Amino acid sequence: MDTCALVAASDFNSQQFAKMQDAGAFDYVIAADAGYAHVRSVGATPNLAVGDFDSLGFVPADCPIEEFPVHKDMSDLEIALGRAAELGFKRIVVFGALGGRLDHTIANMQLLARFAEEGLETIVVGLDSVMGYVVGPGLLQLPSGHTGTVSVFSLCAESQGVTEEGLEYGLEDASLSNRTTLGLSNELIGKPASIAVRKGTLAVFYPLDCLHWL
After folding, report:
1. Residue 43, Ramachandran bin (φ over 0: left; ψ between -120 and 50: alpha; else beta)
2. Which end of the chain is less congested by CB atoms within 10 angstroms, N or C?
């Protein structure tokens, strides 16, 4: 098994989840607390539900569960990510982690960066965009034939050797810090594009229709 979908409680792209589920993109689905309701809303049942279930309001009875106390030091999504890693998945596709409360979004971005740095391919699906991670030395490639906005942010004090090719504005061997807007709002121009980093961790936002590994 390679790919695990994690569904958290924030804004849920039900159409994209259903499309990927129907295409057989997921080997396993873990719902984190109220993410269970999102999964059930598209007629699917998770393989596992985890969390304290305070947001959901009840404990699911139609799938395996791992219930945790409300007073704990990890978010439900962090528990779900840890479980996916323990099960040996190499690719994690996360839904319901962007949007809603800004503090939750920031926490999720930081949390997911940690798992990307630990070697998991981490893809976060929002309502109209995708967030991926590039951990140095690493490369993210986007296919040709697309337009739309690409934004690149350093999630550490300094990401070195950042190179962006095939976009309206190129970068070559640049340094990005987490105190700059230099990587904000670049544009795809229909060509194959790539974002590389030699050292550090980048979060890359790109259009939803660039999901090309299915």
Report:
1. left
2. C
